[in-house]
Amino acid sequence: MSSAATRPAGPDDLWSVDEHLEDILSTVRPLEPIELQLLDAQGCVLVDDVTVPVSLPPFDNSSMDGYAVRVADVAGAGEEFPAVLEVVGDVAAGAADPVRVGPGQAARIMTGAPLPPGAEAVVPVEWTDGGLGEGPVTGMRARSLAPESAEGHVQVYRPAEARAHVRAKGSDVRAGERALEAGTVLGPQQIALLAAIGRGTVRVRPRPRVVVLSTGSELVQPGEELARGQIYDSNSFALTAAARDAGAIAYRVGAVADDAETLRSTIEDQLIRADLLVTTGGVSVGAYDVVKEALSYVGDEDEAGGGVEFRKLAMQPGKPQGFGSIGPDHTPVLALPGNPVSSYVSFELFVRPAVRALMGLTDVHRPRVRAVLKADAALRSPKGRRQFLRGAYAGDEVTPVGGAGSHLIAALAQSDALIVVPEEVESLEPGTEVEVVPLG
Length: 440
What we know:
Number of helices: 8
Strand order of the largest sheet: 16-13-17-21-20-18
Largest sheet: 6 strands, mixed
Distance between the termini: 34 Å
Number of strands: 28
Low-confidence stretches: 1-5, 300-305
Helix content: 10-25%
Radius of gyration: 32 Å
Mean pLDDT: 90
Strand content: 25-35%
Structural class: alpha/beta
């Protein structure tokens, strides 16, 4: 069982939201680090600080297409009296042994190419005649079409200060500096930096594999025909998408009928690819709520740390909840209620932090803000329950969306925040400052 499962409580006693979450986070441990190729590490959390082995850029280079020159040679240059310089060759990006620029000389240089020895600045090609002798040009002709442009003479119509249009070695980051800090989530920008400093692999905590499984004989897959008494399975889609949004690799399992043996077999089959198992439905007190029955027979309950406990929480929506671990690897399980809003709110409060904890993040919670309640009438909340209402958050105001019903999916789709009503509050008047959890 989980660490707080020994908490003294009768079957009808309520757990608080904070107690349930604390139990989850005290039990779930970050996944073991692995070494991954850069692109495979996207979305993962960096385990170690990364130090820069080579400065960026590694050499002085040009930020423009133009001509590498000496400052003295273009001093006082103008359109009436241009500086005329001998072109001694091309310096292209990737050039290993560039030409030397001496007095009265220039080298045609491309963006990103190393500044050649002797050169002190770069004049953009637009400040020159491009070697054509016909006044200012707008660009260079391709070398393949006009190889002679890399030779002869060029007229420069404007002076240049020292280091003009030159990217200095180490101006981005210097060798020995810290490029990325441990705990960083690797996105495209961070992967770009790792590649730029020559890292082909990186040590990370992998993205957790989350298996989402919905239960209910009434559930039909979207795209199929509905029979009388049936509804489409939306929970597994919502929770799988939410798990991916949280940073996990999520697998959705089709809805399982209300049969404990079938559900148990399905869960056992899924454990091989799960770092976390999430079920939705079947955790209340009905005769067909089979998740409790099925989970009680998965794995060895007698092993230390095994088993799932089902609880009642002092919250609305989402009162019935289950948490524990099953199987030989003690895979964490979060059993959520089946009503769509209840399951989604439960995911945000409990599953998302668990996913972030598995990733190795220290801050696993969404930020919370304060906002002014914008409503036509006072909002009611049951005494002793922490209520989470759907809301639309804009600026410093939040507006309730839909009612308090746990089945109102359309209202959920229009919301982008949760309004938190504390346990001791039974009424919230318009204009009251409230706590808000933005979901974006």
